[in-house]
Design brief:
The protein is mainly alpha-helical and 113 residues long. It contains 4 helices and no strands. The protein is elongated, with a radius of gyration of 22 Å.
Amino acid sequence: MADTFNLQAIRERIDALDTQILALLNERAQCAEQVAHAKLAEDPNATFYRPEREAQILARMQSLNAGPLRDEQITHLFREVIASCLALEESMRIAYLGQRGRLRKKRPSNILA
């Protein structure tokens, strides 16, 4: 019975940590959106992906990593986080072909013909 209680307590701690991680991931994503707004305000043709910035982040996370996760695992996790945040930044840019509003007035058959 003591093992079950201990296991339950550990699972509850994991759930609490997962909740914190989720909140922090969403906070990071909001920061990425702010970066996109700042970049677009300076330059409408701004480049969002900067490999040197990704390398800095990954190197910093590896240097802070005290385990038990290996550096390769930390790199994998943070690449996913970076890619997800980058997708948010890039979705801020809306592209269209031709004059604004012109295609929405045409029937789909005319657009694809």
